[in-house]
Amino acid sequence: MIEQGTVASPVEVAGTALRSGVRSRARLRPGRPDSGVVFVVDGIEVPATIAHVVDTTLATTLGGHGVRVVLVEHLLAATLAAGIDNLRVELDGDELPILDGGALHWLGALATAGRMAQPVLARWWSVSQPVRIETPAAFAMLEPAESLTLDVAVQFSHPQIGAQRWSGDPISRFGAELAWARTFGFHADAERFRAAGMVRGVSLDNTLVFDDVGVLNAGGQRAVDEVVRHKALDALGDLALLPGRPRVKMTASRGGHAVHHALLRAAEAVLVRG
Ligand SMILES: [Zn+2]
């Protein structure tokens, strides 16, 4: 029997918020069995579910009852990878810190807190038939499977990116292959986002920034395919928005949060749960 899990003890994580640039704190506390991941802002609970997604620009933003929670996907990916089904995340403000731009700090915090098994069978979800989303630029599909696998591809006409693909089991390979892959962006877009007040917390400490020919970060990329690895990390985090552990094969090409969420909404119509 695979039991549900939560953190064994509370742990606090602090860092810069992506949008506002102010200091942001998250306290991770044990969650009740079958409660899933629940964010708490000003005492208001916002469950990490697809029904609560209110924005997909640059990050997955949840909302409800007048509050918002920005940038949930990296923590959610880490919870799936760490076997944490239930978690209460109390926030100062309405953003999770960007930290390293990936999920390494979240994974480390969950390891520090430790995992406590809960004597309830872990829930899972799948689809009864394949579902797909196609746009002029992107494609994504979910198929029934015994366990979770991802097949993610990107295509950017940038000399340091080009066509990249990552496929495999994102849970067992998360720490070694995905967690350290950083959020990325293009310098050419930075001014537009900055003027809109959307990226005050972005720096070369938390974001891989490409100019026309290369990378602005000292040390360059952590792998030649860091971009697609981050896309896989994001996809895993978004899959956490349906209740339980995914038993699907997800294929995504040139996707992003908006495509992932459309796919999950399509999956709800043919959802199988156990
Ligand atoms: Zn991301």
The biggest sheet, with number of strands, parallel, antiparallel or mixed sense and barrel status, is: 5 strands, mixed
User: Structural class of the helix and strand makeup?
Assistant: alpha+beta
Indicate the percent of residues in helices: 10-25%
Q: Name the CATH architecture of the largest domain.
A: 2-Layer Sandwich
The CATH topology of the largest domain: lpxc deacetylase, domain 1
Bound molecules: zinc ion
The helix/strand series, from N terminus to C terminus, equals: EEEEEEEEHEHEEEEEEHEHEHEEHE
> Could you state the CATH homologous superfamily of the largest domain?
lpxc deacetylase, domain 2
Overall mean pLDDT stands at 95
Overall body shape: globular
Strand percent estimate = 35-45%
Radius of gyration: 18 Å
Stretches where pLDDT falls below 50 for ≥5 residues?
none
Strand order of the largest sheet: 2-3-9-4-5
As for the number of domains, it is 2
**Continuous helix count:** 6
Total beta-strand segments: 20
What's the CATH class of the largest domain, please? Alpha Beta
What distance separates the N and C termini? Answer: 13 Å
Write the layout of secondary structure elements.
Layout: E1 3-7, E2 11-16, E3 23-30, E4 37-41, E5 44-47, E6 53-55, E7 61-64, E8 67-70, H1 73-81, E9 87-92, H2 104-113, E10 115-121, E11 124-127, E12 131-134, E13 139-144, E14 149-156, E15 162-168, H3 174-178, E16 183-186, H4 187-195, E17 207-210, H5 226-239, E18 245-246, E19 248-253, H6 257-268, E20 271-273
Parallel strand pairs: 4-9, 11-18, 14-19, 16-17
Antiparallel strand pairs: 1-10, 2-3, 3-9, 4-5, 6-7, 7-8, 11-20, 12-13, 13-19, 14-15
Zinc ion (ZN) is lined by residues 73-74, 183, 230, 234.
